[in-house]
Design goal:
The protein is of the alpha/beta class. It has one domain (about 5-250): Metallo-beta-lactamase, Chain A (4-Layer Sandwich). It is about 25% helix and about 30% strand. It contains nine helices and 14 strands. The chain has helices at about 35-45, 65, 70-75, 85-90, 150-155, 170-175, 180-185, 195-205, 225-235, and strands at about 5-10, 20-25, 25-35, 55-60, 80-85, 100, 110, 115-120, 130-135, 135-140, 160-165, 210-215, 240-245, 250-255. The strands form two sheets. A seven-stranded mixed beta sheet has the order 6-5-4-3-2-1-14. Helix 8 (about 195-205) packs parallel to helix 9. The longest helix is centred in the C-terminal third of the chain and has 11 residues, at about 225-235. The radius of gyration is 17 Å and the shape is globular. The structure holds zinc ion (2 copies). The site of one zinc ion (ZN) has 7 residues, from helix 2. The site of one zinc ion has 5 residues, from loops.
Length: about 260
Amino acid sequence: MESARLRVAVLASGSKGNAALIEFGDTSILLDCGLGVAQLKKRLSLIGRSPTDITAMLVTHEHGDHCAGAAAVSSRFGLPVWMTPGTAEALNGKQFARTVRFNCHANIQIGELVIEPIPVPHDAREPCQFLFRAHDRRVAWLTDLGHVSAHVARVAAGCNGLLLEFNHDPDMLKNGPYPAFLRRRVAGPYGHLSNAQSGELLRQIDCSRLDALVALHLSEVNNCSDRVRAVIDESLAGSRTQVEVASQHDVLRWLEF
Ligand SMILES: [Zn+2]
Ligand SMILES: [Zn+2]
């Protein structure tokens, strides 16, 4: 029998709502839930899934684009929601079917999947992103971080799959419609990674095993996929890595690792 592989599908990515499905064997994890019940069901159906297939929900941080639908979806389908104590504190008052608090400095196991939480610099209470591991395969999910810490760079190096934030183009942000305080927040050390920052990361780390790269959390106002692809092409020059750009409106179907 062929051994199970990690599968990832991105249901939505961006400031209006984030959600993805990560699977290994019979374990299916909903990573963030910025979508309501109806949207979630609709998008899951496009990848051949329904909410009853989901084992658990895993939440990166309390911002609405990652959590707006979490309570409704959790209580409707009886899903446990895994989060850091800080995120749980920030979401205090929301009704979940059940919450599981985890230490973001230790591995967690949900079903058959071993997951390493990665603390990140972002303006939330206790945000973390994740490294998923199965056999010798490594897939990192890294979004909503203001700069690349040494720890994040170590995690990203040598991965088979990288799902990485490309939030904004620095020039488009500078010349765009956002008010000054918002521009400072987005570009600041606890905001979001720019195309330039993520491109720089790719140039710094070992990408020799990188089968697929997915750009996440593009700003619809301060970025465009052409610019993201140009930065990635330049940073991964000559490699055969599959490149995808996740979007707010379209589901990115299964990638296997
Ligand atoms: Zn976000
Ligand atoms: Zn955020």
